[in-house]
## 1
Amino acid sequence: MPTAPPGIPARLAAIRARVADAARAAGRDPREVRVLLATKTQDPGTVVEAVTAALELAAEAGDDRPVLVGENRVQELVAKAPALAGLVAAGRLEAHMIGHLQRNKVNQVLASATGVQTVDTLALAEALSGRCVRDGRTLDVMVQVNVSGEESKSGVAPDEAVALATDVAALPGLRLVGFMTIGLRSDDEAAVRAGFARLRRVRDEVGSSGAPGTAAARELSMGMTGDLELAVAEGATVVRVGTAVFGERPVTR
Ligand SMILES: *Cc1c(COP(=O)(O)O)cnc(C)c1O
């Protein structure tokens, strides 16, 4: 039996407590917010150990949903897939792409991921859709929105997000499950929150549009180690956590 390196289970428990506190402070049910493990730079063994610990904690809390992991790079997603395949096949794990995705990597991503959170162009969505239709499968996707307007960040502009999401939702082979953003990097909490609120309004607008395929678009993937309380306060249903679980990453990446 692999044992998690000392620290990871305790860190996971602390994150769950942080999320639960933030949810209760916002008058929300803590179970509405899932923790996605952002596993970039971690080796496959560490990821399996963290997922195992997360499943145990969830089971203790009576939560039998699969654990979510997210990868930023196609190369890492593919490299870790064999170690995670058993958990995915058993329905215990969902592996999401959370980094920028190029169209020419679509086949590689589809071989290893159960979801893509970073759809930001119709061309990318069409490439994913075409491949899924050919394979006879359905892929969960989110539209990534650049709520902060920072040029370094991927994502569709907020003003264009509703139109893109509506188009994506209508494509065969894709199931639009929600929206994803990376928050503004700033100490100005009000500004960070405003970005998260913007994503929520995009979701609400799309969800209430009645357009084909939009009914399932409920998720808000927003908030990381440094800003998850603000995201939960604004309605996050998935927070993506790396540093708080695995420690600081090497500065080179
Ligand atoms: C790395 C990463 C995270 C997690 O960030 P931490 O600050 O380490 O919690 C979340 N989302 C994305 C897209 C990331 O690349």
## 2
Amino acid sequence: MSNQHWLERSRASVWHPCTQMKRHETLPIIPVREASGIWLTDFEGNRYIDGVSSWWVNLFGHGEPRIKAAIRDQLDSLEHVILAGFTHAPVVELSERLGALTGLGHAFYGSDGASATEIALKMSFHYWKNLGKPEKNRYISLENSYHGETAGALSVTDVPLFSATYAPLLRNAIRVPSPDSRKAAQGENADDVALAAAAALENVLAKQSAHIAAIILEPLVQGAAGMAMYSPLYLETVRQLADRYDVHLIADEIAVGFGRTGTLFACEQAGIRPDFLCLSKGITGGFLPLSCVLTRDGIYDAFYDEDVTRGFLHSHSYTGNALACRAALAVLDIFRDDDILAANRERANQFTHYLEPVRQRRDIHHFRHTGMIWAFDVDTPHPGFGQAFFQAMLAQGCLVRPIGNTVYFMPPYCIDDAHMAQLAEATCKSLDALADDPGRIGAGLALP
Ligand SMILES: *Cc1c(COP(=O)(O)O)cnc(C)c1O
């Protein structure tokens, strides 16, 4: 069967995510027949480097044998069981290990990132309600934040392209400035921007903290904003402010957790512990949907009561799925056994080195890098740049999806020198080709 065969059937029956389907009249969908390591292969044998880790979920490459083996082994004993009133070994072991790694000893499970956001928002409000402070029912989120697409998550998301249409359905969060280090003026550094953003937050808290349950943020890197990176000093300061003004800190590490920023969790770089930690995406190495909200004793205890309604009566059918938890345990084993964080430091140095010719270019600015994420902004007046760049890269065997005019790389941790060289060379060639022939750039926006 050809690519054409599958893309036509897919167009007819699959409503693809984050997509204006009509654009697929001209833009092909790429049917993937198989994937291995960093490579995706289509039905005609073309291979693509997965430069975005399959929407930021894959950690160690596709088909990682130890994760596969763990899931297979689990399949032989228990695939899934209701988690209300029942439990099983993988969910207990995973909760214990995540608790030991984060200092947050109570784990509540969902299936997708957005459901983790919903869980954290609801838990925070419910905590204050249980304490007799139901008026603490508003949230603070950052300019350009992204926390998922369900209605609660969208109300703390500041990407108008995704949220504006649904504005009448949402109860918008209070927005505070992003500490995005690109805002630094001449003579300022990332810490200056962080402190200015924290001061703006303090202004809001000083006036409104009596009505605020929590501040939610993406630690160190605002992903969907276009990989906006910022100083850990911001997290450190927000932690102090949250304590001083008695509001929760929700750390959405759905994208940045599991080694993406160089440490297992991004909050570690600021030496802080959030009140709620949301995890998903990399948690199963990109194999199965699973999300988790971790919290501390003091919050858990506020729900522990004779009264049923003081309990957290939230659920998802697949909560704590045994296969997904086994995959997550295998992921933690791999971090330990292969010393992934140390190996990634080496990889990151290499890739930064390969990207030097990109960094040197006159037509890009704000080249930036945190852990296993790289990004830069392209000087282009064309709103269709992202789409054209995506296609130029694809023609060279690389899957890279710009966000607006920001090009970023978020490769699986199995990236080697040959892949790095190919990505870097293809990037320069694509930028050259589009600069020489801007007529190739059509209209339309690039979606993450
Ligand atoms: C992807 C993402 C989410 C939403 O996760 P889904 O699994 O897509 O629902 C939430 N927050 C951040 C920071 C993300 O990157």
